């Protein structure tokens, strides 16, 4: 517990500047600026606090291929570069045990170097670095990728224009709900996203509470980062119509450890959702 407290204290400034969106592994001051190497569900980041400005830069290096040492013995910022010690790895799926992936090192003891100027490049100054935008299918040359009038950095559904109809209501009920910890505001958590692969135009139109990327189901249409990195944690199937009742549909919801078949019916302006079968794997 002491170790945890000490770690929390060491990164308290970052936790507060970034609303507890990251786990941190190493930090360093360069002049007035402070840098910390960080990770969240999407991948690895370099976070930077300079005066009152806090920014996070996505590394675009998949945790499916790279492992970085939790303890960095050398400075992480040197000669205008981010330098990280780690290994090239391969994920070994453990058959029958989803979620229990193992890593096998292909090349150990590597030093990965990335120019800070490349990492920090944000062509249209919208708050997300170009590498992040390219990794998730945003347009690095445009501040508002989906042209809905909301800038990418403030858009909770940045790849699609949101709307409202009975099907978006259904999908908004079916996506996971998160409880904000006291003082947390999901809108201010600009680097934390859920990721779904879904081609249904109604699903794409949802107004999520937490930032959400709704990307193509077809692997070939995905940006490289999403093809090689397993960040999609669940999804929903297409709606199947009930042959008799036009207001009734069937849908399958899947996650990393379970699948559910559900019957959903729109009655008196509301969706009634019934789980008809489920398996926990
Ligand atoms: Ca940008
Ligand atoms: Ca937008
Ligand atoms: Ca949008």
Shape: globular
The share of residues in helices is: 10-25%
Count of structural domains = 2
Low-confidence segments, given as residue ranges, are none
Structure write-up:
This protein is α+β, with helices and mostly antiparallel strands and 281 residues long. It folds into 2 domains: 2-120, no CATH class; 151-280, no CATH class. It contains 7 helices and 15 strands. It has helices at residues 2-10, 12-17, 116-119, 130-136, 166-174, 201-204, 224-228; strands at residues 23-30, 33-40, 43-50, 53-58, 66-68, 77-78, 81-92, 102-115, 194-197, 212-215, 234-236, 240-241, 248-255, 258-267, 270-280. The strands form 4 sheets. Strands 11, 12, 13, 14 and 15 form a 5-stranded antiparallel beta sheet that branches. Strands 1-2-3-4 form a 4-stranded antiparallel beta sheet, with no helix packed on it. Strands 5, 6, 7 and 8 form a 4-stranded antiparallel beta sheet that branches. β14 (258-267) and β15 form a beta hairpin. The longest helix has 9 residues, at 2-10. The radius of gyration is 21 Å and the shape is globular. The mean pLDDT is 91. Bound molecules: calcium ion (3 copies). One calcium ion is lined by residues 122-124, 126, 128, 130, 133, 140.
List keywords for this structure.
single chain; 281 residues; alpha+beta; 2 domains; 5-stranded antiparallel β-sheet; 4-stranded antiparallel β-sheet; 16% helix; binds calcium ion; Calcium-binding protein
